[in-house]
Amino acid sequence: MAKGMLPRTARRIPDATIRRLPAYLRALEAEAGQRLTSAALGVLTGFSSEQVRKDLAYFGAFGTRGVGYPAQELASEIRHILGLDHELKAALFGAGHLGTALARYVAATHRDVRIVAIFDPDPQKHGTEIAGTVVESLAHFETEVQRLGVAVAILAVPDAAAQPLAQRLAAAGVRGFLNFAPVMLTLPAPADGSPPAAVHNIDLSIELQTLAYFVQVHETAQV
84 Cβ partners below 8 Å, 6+ apart? Predict the structure, then answer.
């Protein structure tokens, strides 16, 4: 297998392709030791074999035509492309019900992402532990995320708090945000010309309301 290489600029890679890579990775790791064709990988992930080949072609030449991809080797390549061949440090903001569930889920399922700090404004939660990480005050969070080398912030905070918090974190060097607050974060590009922080907004209310439409369509079609 030819060694996969990161493209010179991630801007040339469609966002949809990047979003499919974790699905390929999960399927490949579940089939470690096997050799998978693009058709087989497509069946496992729900994408077409053509889509699989097109996505992987952005990053190099993988596998052998008609034979397929060695699952373990391709999984290693995708981990490198995604930046998961080294530990990714994250900080969680908000230790309520959602934040607690997220911390426990990440600790139980992710070997490549580690929550190294949890912050919450509630004094009664300070000093308590969630999934082995102590909840801290927000008093000096910028200094702490810099000391720990935090790359990603997970925001499970009220909507009014999310934007100003994200701006301070971006200024402190955080490069990625997973935002569960019901507000769309917008972060400007840094003054030094470096790329802006990556933001993934996940609004559970919008997802449920969108799902309600498709449920309605399904029920109407059966009438």
Answer: 25, 112, 113
- One-character DSSP codes across 81-116: HHT-SSPEEEEEE--SHHHHHHHHHHHHH-SSEEEE
Length of the chain counted residue by residue: 223
- Quick one: CA torsion of 199, 200, 201, 206, rounded to 10 degrees? 150
Paired sense of beta strands 35-36 and 133-136, if any: unpaired
Distances (CA, A) of 23 to 79, 169, 201: 12, 29, 19
What is the model's pTM? Answer: 0.81
Quick check: helix, strand or coil at residue 128?
Answer: coil
Q: What are the tens digits of pLDDT across the range 130-166?
A: 999 999 999 999 999 999 999 999 999 999 999 999 9
Contact residues for 142 (Cβ-Cβ < 8 A; gap 6+): 168, 169, 171, 172
pLDDT in tens, 33-89: 889 999 999 999 999 999 999 999 988 777 666 678 889 999 999 999 998 888 899
In order of start, what are the domains of the chain with their CATH numbers?
10-82 (1.10.10.10), 88-207 (3.40.50.720)
Neighbours of 150 (CB within 10 A): 23
Give the model's pLDDT for residue 191: 77
pLDDT of residue 64: 66
By DSSP bridging, strand 129-130 and strand 133-136 are antiparallel
